[in-house]
Amino acid sequence: MSALSITVLYAAFGTVWILAGNRLAVALFGADLEGHYAFELGKGLTYVLITSGALWLLLRREFRRRDRAEQGRLDALIGARSALDQTAEALGRAIERRDPYTAGHQARVALLSAAIARRLGLSEERAESIRLGALMHDIGKIGIPAELLSKPGRLEPQEFELIKLHTVYGHDIVKRVEFDDAIHRIVLEHHERMDGSGYPHGLSGHAISQEARIVAVADVVEAITSHRPYRPAKGLDTACEELRRLRGAKLDAEATDACLALLDEGFRF
Ligand SMILES: [Fe+2]
Q: How many other CB atoms are there within 10 angstroms of residue 244's CB atom?
């Protein structure tokens, strides 16, 4: 029912009520003023009662309609969010067959990164963005020749230059999906370093997003403690030593401290 039709109905009902009521009052009471007064009072109160009931029914219907619409919007939002989460998981796994090292590496970095974020007191929403970003931070390696990714021994300088491009390739992939910007930046900036010595853009300090600084710390720990084609895994002690050495100069001090505290408390991948 439209607002106009409700208003017209209300006005018509009120007019009929008043005119018919007056005629009835004259017919019933004639010159009896006391009778007129009692009748008009009763007529007015009945009118208020009827219109209040109608108003209540209309408002209740409108509020229920709004609640249903709001719930529909919320469901759509949750659905979109879950589709993005699934996209991140799928992108993270896309590299699995080609480079199993990277797939497992991303999953472990995601676990540690989210734990560091929570330890730093970041909101659950940001911790989740960090987990998703970390889950696919090396997705750009899909554009790097497989023989380079699994090459035993040291890389030639020009080969390393090629490997560096995985940050840009990865960003090019994820930017096409409407993830949080934090997720895009994790993929692009996770190899940037606090002193500006990282890649691809040589950003320094807080020009690197906090999310990427956190993933950088987790990335270093996971890389040291995992087996690589060119060297066996090293222990957690070596990883902690390396973290202390890189703290501040290369890696974000706060994120490094949070990571060291987690490992000290027994966090394991
Ligand atoms: Fe990487």
A: 13
CA angle 31, 34, 35 (to 5 degrees): 70
User: Could you tell me the distance, in angstroms and rounded to a whole number, from the CA of residue 136 to the centre of ligand 1?
Assistant: 9
Distance 195 CA to ligand 1 centre (A): 18
CA of 23 to the centre of ligand 1 (A): 89
Domain boundaries, the chain: 3-74, 95-264
CA 119 / ligand 1 centre spacing (Å): 23
Among the listed residues 130, 84, 109, the one whose alpha carbon sits nearest the alpha carbon of residue 226? 109
Q: Please give the distance, rounded to the nearest whole angstrom, from the Cα atom of residue 162 to the centre of ligand 1.
A: 12
pLDDT digits (tens, 9 = 90+) for 84-128: 889 988 988 888 777 877 778 999 999 999 999 999 999 999 999
CATH topology of domain 95-264: Hypothetical protein af1432 (1.10.3210)
Q: Element (H or E) spanning 174, and its range?
A: helix 166-174
* pTM exceeding 0.85: no
The contacts of residue 242 (CB under 8 Å, 6+ apart) are 220, 224
Residue 230 has pLDDT above 80, yes or no: no
